Amino acid sequence: MNERIKQLLGQAYDEAVPETWTSLSSEQLRRVYEKFAELIVKECVGICESGTSTQTTSSGAAQMIKLHFEVEA
Predict the structure, then answer these.
(1) Closest by Cα among 35, 36, 37, 63 to 48
(2) What angle do CA 32, 4, 9 make, to 5 degrees?
């Protein structure tokens, strides 16, 4: 898994459930990290594959992903 994804997931755990996630074993955390990354990548690929040729330019794909996840970046 990409190091940046690990960092972002760790940040999400820290901010969302700081009292809970530290009770997970390192193996449980590893499985969650891997599944999280897999789901995000699959979702992004699906978004890009569903677009028209205009939308699948880098800026078009980026816009589609931001809209899909309701994220402003």
Answers:
(1) 63
(2) 35
Output the pLDDT for position 22.
66
CA distance readout (Å), 12 to 26, 54, 69: 16, 33, 15
What does the pLDDT read at residue 21? 61
pLDDT digits (tens, 9 = 90+) for 7-43: 888 888 778 777 776 677 788 777 887 888 888 888 8
CA 62/CA 25 separation, integer angstroms: 35
User: CA–CA distance from 33 to each of 6, 13, 37, 70 (Å)?
Assistant: 7, 11, 6, 22
- Name the residue ranges covered by the structural domains of the chain: 3-69
Q: Which amino acid is at 13?
A: Y
